[in-house]
Amino acid sequence: MPSPRSEAAPRPETGPHPEAASNAEAAPRPEAAPRPEAAPRPEPAPHPEAAPEVEAAPHPEAASNPEPAPHPGAALHPEPAPHPEPAPDVEAGSVPAPRSEASPEPGASGRADPGQDTATPSGLAALSLPYQIGAALALAVVAVAACVHLGMVFLYVAPSNTVTKQHGKAVDEWIYPEFEQNWKLFAPNPLQQNIGVQVRAETRTADGGYWTTNWFDLSAEDGRAIDGNPLPSHTQQNELRRAFDFYSSTHDGENRSTGLRGALAEQYLRRIVVLRLGRDDAAGRGGVLQRVQIRVRTTNVPSPEWSEENVSTAPEYRLLPWWTVPDGEARGGVR
């Protein structure tokens, strides 16, 4: 038979195990309770008291990714507790705002402040220095040309003065023919005359004879075409009249050219009347135009009844010389 169990001899006292000291320092588990029959363990050697750990408020970002619990052995070398931060007041059901980092000093990180103007330069400022100089020169040339043109136009339409008397030829060369101006529609001197352009021709007939036609009143033909027409053409209203104005401004009273543009004005007026005679079949069947002569009939517009001005209404005629028609124009070369 087995002998009765003798009481267990007390265990010899031993020094504290290193890991036991760490276990003693570790926080007790809430679910573990001390055994009542276990003998109390001797108190371990006193360890320097560490600063009390203050439970820091959880970071908003750490709520989703919790860090693992520290290893029990980490208590041997406790880290100093971080400075406690006050927990933000978060209402129930609301998401806490993320903690903003400290804003760096202006210019410390090299990034522009939100209010700083970071727009890239535009216009001339975006060009390099050589291109800026070229653009400035081009603008200067345009500005000078515009000023010269405005000055020339002003001298042309201004009354006769010392400048126009000395440099009238240069002004005319600049203005004609593209920039011609006149005051004949408005004041100070509107037209007060009726001007009619008439023409006759010397033709060669098909049998070799020559004969002269009667006068064709070309202005009267244009008047009949305009009368009653709600949309008359520009040629019917102005072509013949402007051609004679061009001729009279480049010739004197003796029909002598006063400038380089006199020959051009004569050729322009001749081609218009030859074209009109061709439309009217002035040469007849088989006939060819040889020469043309223009006559201008001028009649003053009668003054109104309430006016005391008395003007003569008798027509005045200006007879131009005979102009030879070139063969190309005589045979229908004018279009």
The total of helices stands at 7
Q: Which structural class is indicated by helix and strand composition? A: alpha+beta
Radius of gyration: 57 Å
Give the strand content: 5-15%
Whole-Å distance between the termini?
Answer: 154 Å
Would you report the number of β strands?
Answer: 6
Major β-sheet profile: 6 strands, antiparallel
Oligomer: single chain
Describe the structure.
By secondary structure, this protein is an alpha+beta fold. Helix content is 30%, strand content 11%. Strands 1, 2, 3, 4, 5 and 6 form a 6-stranded antiparallel sheet that branches. Helix 2 (129-157) crosses helix 3, helix 4 (218-226) runs antiparallel to helix 5 (234-249) and helix 5 (234-249) packs antiparallel against helix 6. The termini are far apart.
The gist of it:
The protein has 335 residues and is an alpha+beta fold. Helices cover 30% and strands 11% of the residues.
Task: Kindly list the characteristics that best describe this protein.
single chain; 335 residues; alpha+beta; six-stranded antiparallel sheet; 7 helices; 30% helix; 11% strand; disordered N terminus
Which SSEs are present, and which pair or pack?
Layout: H1 18-25, H2 129-157, H3 162-175, E1 193-204, E2 210-212, E3 216-217, H4 218-226, H5 234-249, H6 262-279, E4 288-300, E5 316-319, E6 323-324, H7 327-333
Antiparallel strand pairs: 1-2, 1-3, 1-4, 4-5, 4-6
Helix pairs in contact: 2-3, 4-5, 5-6
